[in-house]
Each structure stands twice: as structure tokens, then as C-alpha cells.
Amino acid sequence: MGQMGFYYDLETCIGCKGCQIACKDKNDLKTGELFREVHDFEGGSFPSPYVDHVTISCNHCDKPKCVENCPTGAMHKREDGIVDFDHSKCVGCKMCMWSCPYDGPVYLKEEGKVAKCDFCKDLLENNEDPACVSACTMRAIDYGDIEELKEKYGTNQSIRYFPDLDITKPNIVVKQKSR
Amino acid sequence: MFEFLNKVKEHKFSRRSFIGAGAAVTAGAVFPASRNKLQKLTAVQAEELQSSEGEWIPAACWHNCGGRCLLKAEVVDGIVKRVKTDDTREDSPDNPQQRACVRGRSQRQQVYGVDRLKYPMKRKHWEPGGGNKELRGNDEWVRISWDEATDIVASEIERIKNKYSNRSILVTGGDIGRALNLVGGHVGTWGTTSWGSWRWGPAYFGLQEGYFEHSINDRIDLRNSQLIVLWGLNPAWSSPGSPTYNFLQAKKAGARVIVIDPMYSESAELLGDEWVPVHPGTDHALMLGMAHTLIEEDDPDSNPLIDWDFLKSCTVGFDQDMMPEGADKEANFKDYVLGTHDGQPKTAEWASEISGVEAGVIRRIARDIASTNRVALLTGWAPARIKNSDSWPQMFMTFGAMTGHMAQPGRMTGVSCHFGTGNGGPRLVMGGGNGVPPAEENDVPDSLVHAEMWDAILKGEYTAGYNDKRDIDIQMIYHGMGATLQTRDGQSKGIDVHKNVEFVVTNGHFITTNAKYSDIVLPATTPWEREGGFNVGNRDALFYYRNVIDPLFECKDDAEITTEIGMKLGFTAEEVYGDVSPRQQLFNQIAGAQVINKAGTDYEPLVTITNKDISEWGVEGEPQKGRITISELEEKGVYQVERKPGDNYGYIAQEAFRKDPEANPLETATGKLEIYSEALAEYVKGIGFTEIDPIPTYNPAIEGYEDTYKNFHAKEKGDYPLQVINPHYLRRAHTIFDNNPWLREAWPNDVYVSTADARERGVKNGDTVLVESKHGKTLRIAHVTERLIPGTIGLMHGAWVEMDEEKDIDKAGSDNILTGAIATGQAISGWNSTICDFRKWEGEDLKLDKLWEPRTV
Amino acid sequence: MFSQEWPLIFFTLFGQLAVGTFIVLMAARFVLKRNGITDLRWLNPSLLALTVLMAVAIVMSMFHLGSISNAFYALSNAGSSWLAREILLAGVFLALLVATYAISYTQKSIDVISWVTAAAGIATVYAMASVYVTTIIPAWMHVNTYLAYFGTTVIYGVVGAGLCFMVFGRKEFFTSHYVSFMKKAGFVAAGAIIVQLIVLPVYLTSLAGGAPAAQMSLNLLFENHAWTMLLRWLLTIAGGGLLIYSFYRYADRLTKHIPAFIYVAVALVLIGEFTGRYLFYISGIPMNIG
Predict the structure, then answer these.
(1) What is the assigned CATH class of domain A4-175?
(2) Is B111 a domain residue?
(3) Which of B84, B389, B475, C247 lies in the 20 to 30 Å Cα band around B228?
(4) Residue B819 dihedral angles phi and psi, to the nearest 5°
(5) Which SUPFAM superfamilies match (chain A) (predicted)?
(6) B113 at the A interface (CB within 8 A)?
């Protein structure tokens, strides 16, 4: 029944980290715990430098290795494609962290368990946008059914700074700067 | 054993996790159950809190960033569970939701910070008269009662007033003056702060007023510009919220963007078609080179680059034929540029040597701007926050006037900064007054200039005007609000002052820099804990906020603190603050709120008020008809005027003046834009520091690029071969939020150094470096980057100083530890050019700020 | 990143020691029986010791978990998770060890169950390695992981079996058959070391040509831990060599007296493998954005 995904307009992202903070607020996270993180990359050379920003959380992959490798089944894929986790089942083995090339799962030290982006499923149920989407002051994040996103924004899924997409097949559509 | 474990646990949370280190609504987190009482959440309560739907209350985002955005707090059982931003309208480029930035979004961490001041505190070794004053900044804190705290403050006011005089009491901000003015007044402070030379000067030469008006058109008209020049402004960092998104619309509408800046900013990356790196503080020279190019190459028939019609009809002073009556005709601008009398033509080559921009590029940009039909020449305040920048705004205006890019659609010249970033014009909607009677007159006329005050206090003498030095003997400092000790230049001297005077008191939320060097700190409520009010930022929207939570711990509103101190001084509450209740004050602001009428010609009441509202609120007032009901305002928290291209709310700065200068003269002596301005020169002279010419001549900055050389012409570098700039940084709004753990994590506050300079000094990315100026030293982790013009380093503005007193080195990257307090011209505080150097730090590496212990007391 | 994975270091090493020792002991039992030696007094105490060792290994692994209250869930996803399979198989192996011990204790034949237990042991080691091979950590996603884990199993197995003989057997029972068996076993262990050494350059080359994370692992190994890596192989090779040398040099005396050389050799091998495992964990840098 469909597959949820994110759209990132990395041409427009100014790396303000508003999405990262909105996510922390929504999920009540402490220092060191980031479900969504904005990565900064600089390159080029003076006087023609460049700076890129990549905002990323769980990509709710088609082939989620975290789900495959989770021993408890806490990590699971929902019908709508969201990779969700069952907090009560998690034993904190960190296997999912060793299975995700995007730092999606995050170990919560105080609880001894892992948690991650759940696409703000509670907000989706109320017909609200995920916290990161509604936070973006540049309107650079969108979400929805991945096929619809592809129709709307094109089919590019790769980001210059990403590992091989075939490992987990992330559900993102990306507009990135040509360089 | 169990008891021991419990103790360990208790200890841990008192140190680290008041309300959870992450303000997390989880088991074990501590929340104020009622005033002065804490309650620890059980797992069941935490679960309930997590799952229950709270009420969304419009919450203040009140900081000095210039932006205003909508913030709403979800409150469950008196606890804020999370925040969200504007979802009250469909989001569109014409009418964007007023989305809060990274800082507003982390405000829960601020209000509920582990390090919030909870009780009045006294410096342990304080005694009347100061005790061991050297200990300020390092002493322990002792909790005291409000009664004791206000007793101490009132008795010290009396003591110092009697021993010295009211002229020995300095107030740097806040409303404590209401109490002090009842007993004879106090010394104040003033300066150009963020505005630099844009604050007071423009009114004298005609480019609008400087504080509310910035002589640029509104955001929708910006889309008419074909070329936008962003001269020393980086809205992506300095003006978060909607401005950068608005600029993007102009870009999408087809504008080319040239960014002139020492740093390749995020705005340059997003918007820029070209980045022109320039040495800090040399903008004026660069622009003179551009002006020279136009004068040299202009031919009204074959190559029209200068808008002579505009110069003739709307300005004075450009050439000898346009000089105002009585002025020396030789002192005109054109002859200055050509070097007719001083023998130094301000050619592109001349400008290039100073600014670091190639002469060819200077000429090309000049031609580009002059030959494009509709150009927006926008500048931030940053290039004007430089010592000796007094003529820079006039220069900027002059170039705008030469090219005629003023006062027409798509054409504008002026400041794009703070609430007016990329969006000029009068407010379309605003709140009303609160009805509190004005304070008593302050009987003390003395006011110290920010850039001079620490020196003045240490020396006992200050500059009151031209040839006017006066004695001053400050013995008490009251920091009612703000961050004076952190944000004024010459912090090292400021700290000396704070260790010298007899009494220092601060109202605040945390052990800020002001508080750290105080004897008494008084815990103030945040606006989340207050009755409510309005906030304004960009002209399109008005933000209403109301009480979100009860005051935390023993925190009191500033007004309450002032009142209690006033009462200890022998006055009644009414005498200090009037008798308008906080509820009535809020109501008055609502009732007085105004919105632009449909025709765009006048204002009308915003809020409909019924008799029922009045009785429900328990206030006095009259019913009125407006656009929205009180309950809608209370629920939404924002009123935004709908905009569309071509509507009645657009704004073209000085449009009427340009259309008919004779009928609509400016408020200058000549009624025109003054490229030659006696008034400006006189004004600057009257302040008593340095003088300028009536035309915008180039005065090298004190500690500017030229000063990085021992011998500029021989190109022999001096002891401080680099310049430091202080970009605004998204970790903070000035100093606010510097302690916020989420923002510390997101924005580490490294010092930016260019790859070339780092290589020369054997510094690698991530190394701890010592940055040193004539005035102080600070440590930071180096962010080695290609994004800076070599010779410049970027030390971000606003970090809270953390002195290692033994080594006399700050560890936090405090910008003002490096700046010197050197007053120039119109009392400009100078930040964006201090000469300095850096080197690899051989001592212990700095820990990342996010790992620092909070200043919990 | 994962330098503090002590519980896993001990779990894998103890587990492999248990599996390897069990297999080598069963091989010894088979060989000795063929040579008519049936009085295997070391067998039951060895089985018991291995049972305890395996139980300790499993307990150790628990310390890796952040939350053990629901540890039983960790078996739920054995359909796709190698970690679940590893836990399951380790449990099965332990159960079979208990059964083997129980059967042996009641003087019944363990001929059949020993094969089953050995197979479960091998499967456990395979699962252990597979857990790491199926991550996104290039330093682990390599056949080298299997070789390392089975190599340790063999090396530790030989050493463990020798220790069982020394600790649980009485000297007078040792005959030249034991010595001869240990000589052969020693060569098998040497073979396990050699195979790993042959694959090592292949492994390092693949890291050098791999994803950024692989190169970071390589850099980490060479820049920060070059000496540790060298030490790891020197210890193992020296220990193995010393062991084999001792079997020859002291062949005639081994039945009466165990020379200090052997203890030293055993210690060297144990530490060498331990160091190897430590390096394995610290070099585990996950693929990431960048």
C-alpha cells in the first residue's frame, strides 16, 4: 500500500538546521541524539568555493537492512512503507545501527534502546506534516508517496555524498546542485 | 546501598537534568508542579503526558534577531511538550507562513534550561561596598530570598547615591530606571550598536531615518529587480525566518545576484551568481573605485552610465555645478573622486590595492550596475559596524544616486537588515500601547558612549560632545536586561570595570556574562511565563503571544522586580509602575492594535471587541469593530496582511520625492539627497570623537586592512596581519541561546580561517587555535575553509566569554575579547575589522562546546 | 567508533574457544579411540568446562544489550537476522553441550550427539561471522571475517584442547598418541594462521579500493594501530611456532612434564587472537554520508 518518502531540494537548503532542531523537539532528544541531521560539506578553492548541505534522516528504504538485521523484529516496515520501530521490543543491540549507511537509527543512552525517525506518524494521522517538513523556512523538504514525489520532482535519488543506493534503496527524491 | 544509589541519582538530576537534560517528558524528569515546588514525573505520568493532546498556545519568540515568527507551544498540565510554527494559513511565496527558525524552535531548551536562574543569588563574598571585588566572575553563588535581594539592591542604591551621587549609578538596560528616576536618576549608555553608521547618519543626508526606515522597497517589488547586489549581508545567517525565502522569489523571478562580502556566505551559495571577496572595512574604497569608473567612462550620448537627471533633480554635491549654496565648489564629490585637488584619483586600481578586488572586476561590476535598468543595491549593517565608517552610508547613497537606482519599481538603494531585510516599508499591522504611564524624567543627563564607556569609567572621564569632556565616577552598574558586558567592544576593559565598581546587579535568565560578573543576580521570567503581548518583525505580520506556563521557580517579571525595588526605596507600586494590571496592559495592546486599510492609505482597528470580551477579561475598555475577534487572535497568534503583486500595500521608498522633489522635499537642509552634507559633518563633529568631510571621502578604518601592514605601500605586514569579522551565527541571536544545548550541537562555533592563512601557520582543520589581537586572546577550534578572503578570519558574534583568569585567555570565542573600545565619529561601535593573528594552540585542546558543563546554579 | 565493544569481544572469543575446543576434543577422542585408548578421564570435566565457558560467553553477550528485560525478543526475527540466528544457534550449541555432557556423564555413547553438537558449533561460528558480514561496515563485509572467526576457532580449539588435556588429564595417562595428535593439530592451527596471512593482503587491498569508510578503516589500522596489528600477528605466529616447536623439542618429556615453553606459547596465542579481535572491532567504521 504505497511507500512514503522524502523530497529534498538541496539546491535551496541553506543548512540552517531548523529541521534538525524541530525533529529534536518533536522527539525530545538529548545532545548526541539526532534522528535528522544536517551535514555540511565545503569544497572548491578560493575564490570559487562552494558549500553544500545535506539533510537526512531515516530514508524508509525499500531494502531496509536495519529491518532485515534486527533480531527482535522491533524494526519493521509498515504497510505505508514507513520503517517504524517497536520500542517495547528493542533490546538495544545496535544491530540496526550497523546496518544503516545513513545513521538513521540512534541509540538513546538513557533508555538503552534505539529509536529513529518514524515519519512523525502521529502527525500524519492528524493530517499534519512531519515536523521537519513544516519547519523548513526554505520549503526545501517535502514528503509523500514516493511515486508521486518522483512525478512531481523527477527521479533523481542520489546525493553526491551518499553511499551506494543499492545497499538499502532509500526512498528519497533529491534535487541537487549541478556541479 | 539503595539509598546510596538514590542519592547518586538525585545528585545527577540536580546537576544535569532539571526537567531532563533534554527537557524530555520522560520518567524521572523534573517539572515545576507549582511555584517553588518540583515534581518528579513517574513513568505513568510521563506516558500520559506523552500521549495526551495539549492546548496549542501562541508563545513568544521575543529575541533581538529582527525576525519575528510564529511559535506555538503545546501545553499539557502546565508543561510544554513541544513547539510548532505557523500552520495557520496556506503557505505560498506571496503569503508565506511565518516559520520560526532554528533558534525559535529550540526555545523549550531555553525556557526549561538546566541552567535557568531559579532563585535570587548573591555572590558569596559580597559585602556592602563590594567586599573582595576581584572575585567577581569566579565567586560562588549563594541562594537568598527575594526580600534579602531587594533589600540589598535598595540599600546599595541609597548608600552609593548618598556617598557619591546619582551620577555614580549606571543603568545599561531594562526598566529599573522607573525606580531609580524616582530617587534622582542614573547614568545611561548609548551608541550605534548593530546599526553602525546607518543608525543616525542617514537622516542627516536624506536617506530616510535609519531605525524604522531603510530606504528599500518591499519584498514583492524586489522581484522587479534585474540585478540584486548583496553588499555585506547574509540573510541566510543574519535574518532567518522568511527573508531568505523572499530573496529566493526574487531570484526565481529572474534577478541576477552579486554578493560582495569577505566571506562566501550561505546566501552567496543560494542566491549568488558572482561572489566578490573584499577586505573588511574597505567597501568605501571599493565603491569609490566603481564611482570613478562611471565618471571616467560615462558619456550621456554614447555610453550613459550616470543618471544625470536624477543627480540634478534629487541630489546636491555631486559636481561643482550641483553644490549647495554657500559651499566651497571645489569640495564636490566628483572632483574628489577624480583627484582634481588632492592629486589622488580614486581609480579602480587605487581601490583594488585597498579592497583586494581586481581593478577589472571593479570596472565590470560598476558598468554592470549602471547599465542594468532595475537594480537593488542592498547592504547590511555589517560594513558600517566599523570604526571610521561614518561616511560609508553616504557613499552607498551616492553610488545609488549616480546610477539612479532609487525610488522606482525594482530600483532601490539602502539597508536590508533586521526586520526590514529585503522588505522595506511601513508596518502593515501593529500592536497598541499597553497604557503604562511613562517613567519619571531621568534627572541625570549623562550618558556614556558604548565604545568609550569602559575606558571612561576606568579613567573617570567621558566625552559628552565636541571639546566637552566630563568627569564621571561610576560605582554601581545595574544590568536590567541585555548583554552589555558581552556585546560592547573592549570586553577586557569591561571586565576590569566590573571588578572595580562597588556594586553590580543583573536581572536575567541565566548566568550570562552580565550576571557572571555581578554581585546580585535576580531571576527574571521569560515572556512564556508572562501575561502576553505583541511582537513585530517584518512589516506583513503581527504576532500575539500569551501566557504559556506559570513562572518557573522564583522567577519574577522585570516589572515586578523594578516595582519591589522601588517599594524598598520608599515608593508605592503605583508610583513606580502605575496601576494598570498586566491583564489590562495586554488588553490595551489588543484594543490598540491597528491594521492597514484596504486602500492602503490609513490604519483601522485590528481586533473586534465586544462587551462580553471586556467582561470576560475583567478589564476596562470600549467595544470596537475590527478584522478578527479576540478569540481568533488568541488561537492563531498571528495576523498577516494578505499580499499580492500590484496590491495597495506595496512600497517604493522615497517614490514621491523622486517623482516631484520640489513638492515632496526630504527633511534635509536642501530638501534633497545630500552627497555634500554639512549637517552630517556637523553632527559627527558634535559627538566629539573624529570628524568627516561633508562629502563621502574614504577614511581608512581604525584597525582596518591598511593597519595590518607595518608599511602599506611597501606591503610589509605588521604584528597583526589579519582582520577579524564577526558574522552573526545561527547558534545565537546576538548572545541569546549561546547556552542552548541543541544549538550548541547544531552550531559548534568554530573560528573560520582561510586555507591559505592556516597553511602558513601550520594549522589543520579541527586544531585548537589561539586568536590574538592587541586587546585580548581567545581560543577556538579552527574551521579551515576556502570561503574566506585570505587575510580575514571569522569569529562568530555573541559567545559568552569564559575567561581562564590565570592565562588571561578566553575559551569561548567571545568576539569582544578581541575588539578594542575605540570611539570614532558618531560613536560607532566597531566590530568587523579588528586586526589580529592566530596560531596553533600548544596547550590542551578545546572540548566541543556541546560537551561543556552548563552554568547551573 | 565501536572500540568499547568488550562484551562482544569476549562473547565471540569465548564462543569460538568453546566450539573449537569441543571439535578438537571430539577429534582427539576419535583418534585416540582408534588407537585403543578408551579411558578419557578428561572428557567429562572438559565438557563441563566448555558448557560453563559457553554459558559465560552468552552472559557476556548480554552486556552488549542496552536493555535486557526483553532479551527473549532477540530470537523473533531469525527468519532474516543473522544476529537472531547467532543467538539462537549459540543457545542450541549450549543446550547440546549440556546434553553431550549429560549423556557422557551417564556413560552412554556420545558418538551421535557429538556430531550434532559439533555441527551446531560450526553453525554458531558461521552465524557469528555472518552477523558482521551483513552489516554496512566495509571492514567487516569481507570473507576475511569468516576466515578470522573460523581461524580463531581452529587456533583456540587446538590450544583449548591442549589445555583440557593438561588441566583435566592426569600426566600418566598421556601417551605418545596424545603428543602425536597434538603435533598434527598444531599443524592444522598453523594452517589456519597461514590461510589468514595469505588473505590479509587481499583484505587490506580491498579496503584500500573500497568505500570511504573502508579507507578510513585502513587508515585507522595503519595510522593508529600499525604496531598493534604487527603485534597481533607476531604473537600468534610466535605462539603457534613455539607450540609446534615444543611438541618436537620436548616430545619425549611431554608425557611426564609440561615445559614452561608450552604455557608461554599458549598465552601468546591467546593474547594474539584477542588482539586480533580487538582490532577487528575498532576498525569497524560504518559507511555514512560524506
Answers:
(1) alpha beta
(2) no
(3) B389
(4) -80, 150
(5) 4Fe-4S ferredoxins (SSF54862)
(6) no
